[in-house]
Please model this.
Amino acid sequence: MSLPTLSAARGVALRVPSLETTAAWLLAVIWIFPLVYAVWAAFHPPAFMVRFDLFAPLTLENFANAWSQAPFARYYLNTFLLVTGVVLAQFVVCTLAGFAFARFPIPGRDILFMLVLIQLFVFPEVLIVENYRIASGLGLVDTITGIGLPYVASAFGIFLLRQTFKTIPRELEDAARVEGCGWMAILLKVYVPLAKPTYLAYGLVSISHHWNNFLWPLVVTNSVESRPLTVGLGVFSAPETGVNWATVSAATLLSIAPLLVAFLLFQRQFVQSFLRAGIR
Amino acid sequence: MAAMTSYRRMQLYGALLLLPAAVLLATFAYLPTIATLINSLFLPGFRGEPAEFVGLENYQLLIEDTTFWRVARNNLIYALGTIPTSIAIALGMALFVNARLPGRGFVRMAYFTPTILPMIAAANIWMFFYAPQIGLFNKLLGALGLSGVNWLGDPSVALTSVIVMTVWKEAGFFMIFYLAALQSIPPELKEASDLEGTSRWSFFWRVTFPLLMPTTLFVLINALINAVRVVDHLFILTKGGPNNATNLLLYYVYENAFSFFDRTYAATITVVILLVLAVVATVKFAILDRRTHYQ
Model:
């Protein structure tokens, strides 16, 4: 195990005895196994669910079944509209609020900011009962807007953008003002471009959150026209529906595929985003 | 005078920038929170009759509701079962992938991937393992000549099965925070301890673990919130059953509101959840963030 050329490498890297390597790999295999198993079940005929035969025939029939038994195309569209809408709306609303908190002398600013931070703990899904009533009062039940709107003013987004805006030197703002920029132009030409990494991090975290969100969308939707993928999958694969398992695993893979592929392609960005968004 | 008006104008401008967020937060966070508190003091009005004010009667019902206590106890067991385990596994994972390890990229990816899946999808996949007749676990036990376990149908096992799935789903997420923290520990510390011949075991407990304490607390807060907030998997795995053995507080709220149509009792249980979250928030702001400056 001694690698003299690497011993000069920086980092707290320890010399790993093979016992640790084995344990690390064993844990990795256990951790990835459920997903590998879902792939196995989805690409083989139902008879091979628990028969592991290397030469088992591959098939796409489970996907065809899933696709024809539930309106997945519609669910994809709904999830896509939901995620795009939520993220764009969050960007606008949180940018304005973050900018206000970072640069404007609003009376009672600190108290207001603490009030905003409360939403880090009290999520829309905890308040499903009352939020359902409010959504229904606003005529938003069973609409994609109704799924997304409670999440638009995200305390988390406001917090992240405020912190980022605060680190931007005032000199840049003053320079823009000398060139005759108003507040909106300063926001769009100075602050927003310099906060790009924050937008990327927050955007990725928000996309994965809303792609995967379930409880509130389940409560607020009741038709195919507005259901996102998670709710569609939940309805489709509820054990009492008796859909065969190979089809359920194909449906499961269908619903996670886009996000999973994006993650595998941009692992670094995803992990960095979760980190940036988490450590504050 | 001119300066005064420009200051005023900035105040006004700032307030306007804040307005969209304020309206939305009021509508979907503050208003429903207050309405929840108020509704917990009423009985639902039937057939269009107005709701009836009953004071603390709902809370009296709650205290006498054995199902509620069962659910609250489940949630406590669920938190105690998932949080320390996933934190310990996450730390182990981070130590593994922070060390020199062949195939490190793959191992890290394997650990983190469950994080990216929806809870619903994860539950679907675990359903293949847990199902009584055709599930993989029982097939494997059968192959070893052992009798199967009713993983989700046996009240004494079901909650543990749900906990195991949750740990699998969460550990990789917490790992990345530990990994980032480990990478920020100056390598000089390790070099110095190597010179002094400190064992790796005592280096971990005396240096690494204390330095990771802020990360542990951060992860702990997140895990606590998730233990109250995430019940998606129950919809697939158990629906809170058998006989409420896996029911959790938020799922019980859902059942009361949307299956039993008892909105005000659901509000009363929601108040309990809000109290738990308030405690978590107080701990975070009062204790953990004392050194963080929000200015």
